[in-house]
Amino acid sequence: MALKTSARAALLLMGLLTTGLAQLPIPVSAPRGFWALSKNLTAVEGTSVELQCGVRAPGSVVQWAKDGLLLGPDPRIPGFPRYRLEGDPTRGEFHLHIEACDLSDDAEYECQVSRSETGPELVSPRVILSILVPPKVLQLTPEAGSTVTWVAGQEYEVTCVSGDAKPAPDITFLQSGQTVSDISATVNEGSQEKLFTTEATARVTPQSSDNGQLLVCEGSSPALDTPIKVSVTMNVLFPPGPPVIEWPGLEEGHVRAGQSLELPCVARGGNPLATLQWLKNGQPVSTAWGTEHTQAVARSVLVMVVRPEDHGTRLSCESQNSVSTGTQERSITLQVTFPPSAITILGSTSQSENKNVTLSCVTKSSRPRVLLRWWLGWRQLLPTEETVMDGLHGGHITMSNLTFLVRREDNGLTLTCEAFSEAFTKETFKKSLTLNVKYPAQKLWIEGPPEGQSHRAGTRVRLMCLAIGGNPDPSLTWYKDSRPVTEPRLPQEPRRVQLGSLEKSGSTFSRELVLVTGPSDNQAKFTCKAGQLSASTRLVVQFPPTNLTILANASALRPGEALNLTCVSISSNPPVNLSWDKEGERLEGVPAPPRSAPFKGSAAATSVLLRVSSRDHGHRVTCSAHSAELRETVSSFYRLNVLYPPEFLGEQVLVVTAVEQGGALLPVSVSANPAPEAFNWTFRGYRLSPAGGPRHRILSGGALQLWNVTRADDGLYQLHCQNSEGTAEALVHLDVHYAPTIRTLQDPTEVNIGGSVDIVCTVDANPILPEMFNWERLGEEEEDQSLDGMEKMSKGATGRLRIHRAELAQAGAYQCIADNGVAPPARGLVRLVVRFAPQVEHPTPLTKVAAAGDSTSSATLHCRARGVPNIVFTWTKNGVPLDLQDPRYTEHTYHQGGVHSSLLTIANVSAAQDYALFTCTATNPLGSDHINIQLVSISRPDPPSGLKVVSLTPDAVGLEWKPGFDGGLPQRFRIRYEALGTPGFHYVDVLPPQATAFTLTGLQPSTRYRVWLLASNALGDSGLADKGTQLPVTTPGLDQTSGESDDQVPTEQPPAGPLGLPLLPVLFAVGGLLLLSNASCVGGFLWQRRLKRLAKGVSEKTDAGSEEDRVRNEYAESQWTGDRDTQSSRVSTTEAEPYYHSMSDFVPQLPPMPEEGFTGFGEEGVAFPGHLYDEVGRMFAPPGAWGPLYDEARTGPSDLYWPEEKYEDPRGIYDQVAGDLDTMEPDSLPFELRGHLV
Q1: Residue 6: phi, psi to the nearest 5?
Q2: Does the pLDDT value for residue 1099 go beyond 70?
């Protein structure tokens, strides 16, 4: 209470201090009090309410209190954003408005007025604001929205729990729209104060009518306008109704046999729908059924064809589902009506005329029984007796007997037994037979060729037998000499007899007999019989010998023995003449006495005597029987069987050729009788296994088959044949051909220049052919492959290529090719080395090398020579042999084929000691040669030479020149030109500086010019020369063109000003400082580009013939040489004039002193020993970089074993010595570098 008091005081003080306090300007005379107050209110959560407070209290402060908590006089009510005061304060209206009420607003409210001068404080009666909270959800068990499956009649519990609400909601259950009465509910406290939940449980007993209906839980509350609902769908399982069989007719169970019966069985209702099955006499016959869910019907149709045996059958339809307590059944018993399935007449309907016939007619079982009656034609016959018996399937069997006298006129009439019944009024059942009355024929005769007429064997003869009348039809049977005539039964037998069928024409009957006459038909009697009647005729047949047989007195003979043969002709008509021959040779026979012959013909016989040899084996001795009347001859032969030992025939192959690794067949052509028992092959004394081996097999005919033959299989093979009569032998030579293999080939083959030599190639091959050797010269160019001036020779297995007066151009690689027709040809490489005396390269003018004589620089002298064999270099200075033991001198020697180089490096060059004339001498066993090299001081460059025009257009001219001696420093070139008739000169700097070709642009068409070329280095320029560097040029007109030379080197030219003048002075002025600071780097980069381009161009212009002659000749004894730590290496051999060796091409700066440490050379990537006087620039390749001994040397700028940046431009006269010098004016050159020529 104290807390409430202090809170009220604080709020009152805050209200008094707040601007806009509610003052009551009510007249003092008006009484203080409330004139409008609200009663207790009820509001639903989320709605708005207003508590009224109208007072008369002028000068007082009005505020509301909530459960004793003062809300303050501020109309906005701080701390309660949903609360505010509404109304006109001047009229005393202080209504409390609450927006979106929630449960926190459920409280007691008071309107309080503070005391004032007009009266004490006022407090209104308490107003209770009740907030109704509707339930938000209902939780149903089972889960709402689901489908529950229940069995009809069983009790189930359903629970429904409401969410928080105020007051507690009421819960009801609706089952299929009907209120469930059995409900128990419990109210529990909610999750917050003043909130409640209701849990209700209902006991539900579903019925079949509830299937598919909803079970609804409904929650109602005063806070809800409409109740909230959740539901589940009831899937109520209940048994189906009883099955109903829908019989298609009026009389249930009555059906006709043969009828297709369709019986529907229907079961209505049930969840799930019923399963149906049909039973026949208790046994299932159909378990197929269908359902119609919209009509809740299950249907099964039994389809059956009714048979007589189905009489009395009980058909049942059963229905049930998963909740059925038992099976429901509906049955029908079939009453089947069926006629007799057959009527049978017992007894024979064939009888002779004027005799009685007795027959019986019997029906199969029928229901009901049938009556029988007899008909003959259209005449009804009376039965003698009728009998009825019990039949199958509840039916009856009826039998009727009949006896009557038959006459000839009754023959062919139909005798019918008919069954009838009232149950089958629309059907007639009958059995009919034809009455056959027998009586004999009246006449019989034969029609054919007249008797006594002769027929040639093989002639077709027709005999026709005819008869009149008779029943049954006469059989007309043919006989030959009392034996019935029949056709051959087997198809493969010759069809010599064709017996026709009986044919009828009116009352006349006939049967034809067609004969292909043979010996057995001669004088044969042919008879036709019909019952007791018969007719006959006789044939005369002419035929050759039926059998010609040769008889021998021995089956096997040996050479020289005699054989007696007898030829017998068994029978012929007329007689024949017999004769003998042997393989076309006629033999004289001896006739034999006559003998009896079959077929009433004539027999004959004759004999012959023979003496046989081995050549007669297999020959045929033929006996011929000739009939002059028939003009026909019949022959028979006897094959002679002569036993003799093996004999090789003339076609026996004695030489067999095979290819190595291929197969070979050594054939056998032998004659023997009996056949050879064994074939034995022997090779080099060893017998080959008859069972075969890894590489051979003896075939059934004795031939020897070999595979994977080798040259070792070449030789004579001995064949031994044997039979019971003797033996024979033969030799067969196997000649194995194999591809050539080079055995000897002298590589390399050496010859002195101008001498003669044979390149000898010896092979192992079979066969050896006269023209099997061929030679090729290996080279990249077509002229390198020529064999002109060389002579090809061959003898046996050796081929030679003879070279007369050997030249350097003939040195190189050659290939010996041997081809004898057996692949693959043999190929062998041989190199021809032409030896010649040293030839030192002598460039003109005198070779010079420049170096500063300040005892800190170094110089390298290059001496190159060609010669084979290897060359030894010696050096002299001013004619005195050079002491290479001096640590200041280092020599490196390189050998690559026929090219040899010696590099002499002079360290710490002194002007007093080293400015001298050095002589390099090259020596080998064939001679020597030398060259002088002058070591001089650095100086201004010499003028360039050889200025010439290589291309010309109306506005440009392409120039090319040869640089002069550069004075030992980097040089550059400038072009000066003038147009004749126009005063003043124009200057253009050549870029890159070391280029030796340039295109001068900006010229005028059809104009004469004079062009000069100047060279300059750090010490000055070369000046203008009168010859070689001045060139007159006349540009063509615009209508003329001049193609550029293929050798033109494209360069760039600085841009010109508007008047065509060069802007070089302006560029120098603007970029002087930049050029001075970077000249060294730019110059080095451009220098390397110049070296690569010019080396390529010069190598193309070098005399190809002499160069290739020297390079191609490689010497086999190329090796590492040198005096001290030196090795030979491949070097570039590109040659050009003039020949000056640039110091910067070969010599880097000296390595640092020992105390400074050694860092190596980054450009070369080579580390050197750290002593002071080690070689300055190593030009040899690392170990393992050498190619084959006789590989052709293709020297040039791209040589792999000569660094391009060290020796690529052979046309540089004198190159830079001190590589670290920047481009500078001559006056800025240090004094110690200003050397002088000694």
Answers
A1: -65, -40
A2: no
